[in-house]
Write a structure and sequence with these properties.
- The protein is an all-alpha fold and 352 residues long.
- The chain has one domain.
- It contains 17 helices and no strands.
């Protein structure tokens, strides 16, 4: 019930106030607390992070052979020194994960509270409850992406990738956003946005024909010093991983993307156009790596997070009664799926 309460609360507040710095700060603080004091029973990944924490405090110095990144290592060490437990580690990740994203919403989102609603509907649970390292990395990536647009200097994207990799190595794939940065102001922008959807459709056909990126992943897995890619390939070969359902995950995203294409001429802001490109990348990469579910989810989530900025833009697309209804439906459907059908996040408990 607590999740439904927060969803309804954010929805009611955003209904009358599309932007409100005060409400955004208050709601973000509440979401930080909600994530920081959750019980290990709320998410299976919590126990994995406790195991990582125990491993980190048992080693004397960081090495790239460890299963986690430097950011997790140093925060684990700090938590051990300050509290003698993993408590501060989860507080730090909740504060960084929610805090950085909320700062980005406040300063760069067209409608900050609507972006918060869409974020809470899905990515809050995905990043702040489960994949907390990716959660912090994504916040850093999008902050630096907006800084690059604001200051007209792509070096911020490169710096953001370098900093985000301290929390998750998959952040390296965000270098592709340099293409979005360039295309946003290119005469080929609209053509590229269309091409992502066409290529995605072709890749879905290839996926169901058994043709995909698995062999390419095998080639680059030798460069992965953490060994995770090889592990994912092994469990895939053993039949442990469930076959991915492309339509379940991308259905609403594709509809949103089609609406963006229909209203493309109304998008005048170059930053917004660049975000539409990132949304297209997310759809494309999910289809491209669909043969390997873990890789597909991890890479596409980084780019599909752009939907918290792009979907609210549909409020400018006509007929507005249809697009505004879709924005609400988008958030509601993903919220219901995540909370009531994901299997792990239905019952909230605190550590107390």
């Amino acid at each position: 019930m607590i999740y439904t309460f927060f969803y309804v609360l954010i929805r009611l507040i955003s209904f009358g106030r599309l932007n409100s710095g005060g409400w955004l700060v208050l709601l973000s603080f509440m979401l930080i607390v909600l994530a920081a004091i959750r019980s290990p029973e709320v998410s299976d990944d919590y126990y994995n992070y406790i195991n990582y924490y125990s491993l980190m405090i048992s080693v004397d110095k960081f090495s790239f052979g460890l299963p986690v990144e430097p950011g997790f290592y140093f925060l684990a060490k700090a938590s051990e020194v300050l509290t003698g437990s993993h408590l501060m580690l989860f507080i730090a990740f909740a504060a960084l994960g929610v805090g950085i994203k909320s700062y980005v919403f406040k300063n760069y989102a067209e409608f900050s509270l609507v972006s918060l609603l869409i974020y809470f509907s899905f990515y809050y649970f995905q990043f702040e409850f489960a994949h907390i390292r990716v959660g912090v990395a994504v916040g850093i990536l999008y902050l630096c992406f907006f800084l690059s647009l604001e200051r007209a200097n792509s070096i911020w994207i490169i710096a953001g990738v370098a900093l985000a990799m301290l929390f998750h190595y998959s952040s390296l794939c965000f270098l592709v956003s340099l293409v979005a940065y360039w295309l946003a102001n290119s005469r080929y922008s609209y053509l590229a946005i269309l091409s992502y959807l066409i290529l995605s459709a072709a890749l879905i056909v290839c996926f169901y024909l058994g043709i995909g990126a698995k062999d390419a992943i095998r080639l680059i897995s030798n460069l992965d010093f953490t060994g995770k890619l090889n592990y994912y390939l092994e469990v895939l070969d053993d039949g442990v991983l469930t076959r991915i359902n492309v339509f379940n995950r991308l259905g609403m995203h594709v509809i949103a993307y089609l609406l963006m294409i229909s209203g493309y001429k109304r998008i005048k802001n170059l930053g917004h156009i660049a975000l539409v490109h990132l949304h297209g990348f997310g759809i494309l990469f999910f289809c491209m790596f669909a043969q390997i579910p873990v890789v597909a989810y991890r890479i596409s989530d980084i780019f599909l997070f752009s939907s918290v900025f792009t979907v609210p833009l549909l409020a400018h697309v006509r007929p507005q009664i249809l697009t505004k209804s879709f924005i609400f439906a988008f958030s509601l459907i993903y919220f219901v799926v995540m909370v009531f059908f994901s299997g792990n996040e239905v019952y909230y408990k605190t550590i107390f």
